[in-house]
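Thread: UDP-phosphate galactose phosphotransferase, structure

OP (GT): Posting the sequence first so everyone is looking at the same thing. Length is 178 residues per the record. Can we get the structure tokens written out before standup tomorrow? I want them in the notebook alongside the other entries.
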Amino acid sequence: MRKQRIYDPFYKNMICSIFLAFSDLLGFVISLYLSLGILSFSMTNFSERVPDDQVASWIILHWLLGLCCVAWYGIRLRHYFYRKTFWFELKEILRTLIIFAVIEMAVMAFAKWYFSRYVWLLTWVLVIILVPLLRIATKIILNKLGLWLRETWIIGSGKMQGKHIKRYTARRIWGWVL
């Protein structure tokens, strides 16, 4: 049986997908702990406004939503397997995060959990900032390691080939090697 190397295209793509999914989950989940930490220092009567008995349930809900969000990005939107333009991918990320924020707010309302709205708002502002930033940082790191780059061919000649070569080489974050 042939021994597989890390630089085979399949394994490079799998490693990139795993790291991108992990960075999205990290950005989603760490925002919860950051907001609780920030507000515990800045908010007066934090323990009254954010009861400890309800925080545990909210943490579980947020983790589950984070896993569902990463699964949605991977399965439905195919962010981890296909290369998309920055703005198109950012639009899909932000739209999905807003939908998940509304879902979390609805679950919290139906469960009648008492929370300060500042905690929820700061958490989701941090999610909306951290998920795209960590994804970009992950792509940059993978690119520096040589894992993000994919080989591609441009078939054609003349002006159109020149335009495509300029387009694909100008955007290093897409990860195409011609």
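GT: Both are above now. Quick notes for whoever picks this up: The CA atoms of residues 12 and 19 lie 11 Å apart. The longest strand covers residues 150-151.
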